[in-house]
Amino acid sequence: MNGITVTRWNLGLSLTFALTVVTGAFTLLWERTNALQATQIELVAHASRMEFQVTDLREDVVTLREGMVALREDMVVLREEVTAIRGEVTAIREDVTALREDVTAIREELREGVAELREEIRGRRDLNRARGTLGVVTQ
Predict the structure, then answer these.
(1) What is the pTM for the complete model shown?
(2) Tens digit of pLDDT for each residue in 117-133?
(3) Exposed e or buried b per residue across 16-53, where buried means at least 16 C-beta atoms within 10 angstroms of its C-beta
């Protein structure tokens, strides 16, 4: 073997080794690229699911907002009804107070009327007694 053959052999060995290293690196890069592609596909799928979930959440928020608006409108109506009922209760209380005053006035009139009737009855009794006394005296 001469020096040129050894150099060729070393060069061939070096090229083979370099080709093996490049092939290994390319294989590793290919596997990483495939893994990255699978991860990207998973991320896209996850992002799609998240987008659907976000859409559902937005629809839920819209529904909740509509419900809140309806509740606020109901509260306004209820407040108006409560105010009207309070007005009616106040009117009823005023009517009851007026009726109590009327009943008190009627009772007072009845007392006065009864007192007048008693006086009249006493007067007639006294008159009848006086007549009875006169009748006894005249007999």
Answers:
(1) 0.48
(2) 999 999 999 888 888 77
(3) eeeeeeeeeeeeeeeeeeeeeeeeeeeeeeeeeeeeee
